[in-house]
Amino acid sequence: MPGEPLRFPAGEVRRHAESTDAVAEAIEQARAAVREVAMDTQAYGELCQFLPGLLSPIFASAAGALAETAESLRETAHHLRTAVTGITGADTTAAETIRDLSAPG
């Protein structure tokens, strides 16, 4: 007894790729904000002048981590789209082959 046909959810995967790109864009905006934040050495007065020096490397590290995260998300979205293209292309080719083989003549 045949079961349900196996269907690849191409539309859902494409939407997921779009969502992944949207998250990457949000991460890029956060990274840009981190890069724009700069503390003046006078921001905390005389007693806390050391804080910008301590926090600067942390901000740089955060910006780097956010950049890597955004890049990974964009790469994932690209791979999702590539998978959709490959799978739908293979399905189309297989369907054409089956039609050709089952055609009379």
From TrEMBL:
Q: What is this protein called?
A: Excreted virulence factor EspC (Type VII ESX diderm)
> Could you tell me which InterPro entries the record lists for this protein?
EspC
Q: Please, one GO biological process term?
A: protein secretion
Q: Which organism is it from?
A: Actinoplanes siamensis
